[in-house]
Amino acid sequence: MADIHEPNPHAQPSRDPDSAERRGAAMRADDPVRADELARVTDEAQGWLRGRGVWLSGTETSDQLADLLSAVEQFEREVVGRGGDLMIDSAPNPERPDDRHFVLPMRTDGEDVGDYLFRLREATGEVQRHRPIA
Fold first, then answer.
1. CA pair distance 2, 46, nearest whole angstrom
2. At what angle do helices 62-81 and 113-129 cross, to 10 degrees?
3. Who wins on pLDDT, 98 or 120?
4. What is the mean pLDDT of residues 22-30?
5. Is 0.70 topped by the overall pTM?
6. Which has the closest alpha carbon to 117: 54, 81, 71?
7. How many whole angstroms separate alpha carbon 65 and alpha carbon 92?
8. DSSP of 28-94, one letter per residue?
């Protein structure tokens, strides 16, 4: 009879959520490698958004930056899908956009992230309903 304390070589891996939590413990916020990676990704996201003319206070959370990135990318996909040209319709000061609907709405200085996301999603909806251009 086998010792009940010996590991079973045929046993399935644990699906215990606590084991996943223990594995993730090494990825805590105070982990310097994770902190460096988060800082790098944050800098990259801020640069990408600022490059499109989106005002940032520098106090946005990582979740807010992710939401902003996602919303701006969705807006741009819709513009391209309707025949808009991001080089012409892009901020900060598009002189002659294909259509004013294709210009990314600007976030005003001090505007709450949630308020801007709402306006941006509204603008994305307008682009989706817009007739395609040739």
1. 59
2. 20
3. 120
4. 51
5. yes
6. 71
7. 19
8. -TT-HHHHHHHHHHHHHHHHHHHHTT----S---HHHHHHHHHHHHHHHHHHHHTT--HHHH-SS--
Cα–Cα nearest to 131, from 78, 94, 85, 58: 78
What is the sign, positive or negative, of the torsion defined by CA atoms of 79, 85, 86, 90? negative
Lowest mean pLDDT among 35-44, 75-84, 97-106, 119-128: 97-106
Q: What is the DSSP letter of 132?
A: P
Mean pLDDT of 51-70: 94
Closest among 105, 87, 88 to 96, alpha carbons compared:
88
CB atoms within 10 A of CB 62: 11
User: Which run of H or E residues covers position 23?
Assistant: helix 17-24
Q: Where are the domains of the chain?
A: 32-129
Q: pLDDT digit string (tens) for 5-20?
A: 444 444 444 444 444 4
The answer to whether 66 and 80 have CB atoms below 8 angstroms apart is no
Q: How far apart are CA 47 and CA 67, in angstroms?
A: 15
Q: What are phi and psi of 115, to 5 degrees?
A: -65, -40
